[in-house]
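1st attempt posting a full record on here, be nice pls
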Amino acid sequence: QVQLVQSGGGLVQDGGSLRLSCAASDRIVSDNAMGWYRQAPGKQRELVATLASGGSTNYADFVKGRFTVSRDNFKNTVFLQMNSLAPEDTAVYYCNVDFWRAGRHYSYWGQGTQVTVSS
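the predicted structure (as tokens):
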């Protein structure tokens, strides 16, 4: 059973920075694409950023230039560095991994971490 354990987050002022971490129980971080999502109250969960196993990244337009996704393969951890935070970034943030293994599809989510940006 793969586990994704998130840390980081919290309360920050408008314009501040936070870094989220997502530690995996095995080497799925290095072998698979990882994603960061967020869900604000009353809204659907939305994709924030992805990091492919080969290192390419993609970002939602609303975070481009402000957020950076990266990983540490030795620690089986993926990070989301969030700069220039704004109140509209307030949400619960989740990390995710989807992969195929032995013909079966797997999808795992972190427990979520609250990010609150005060104006």
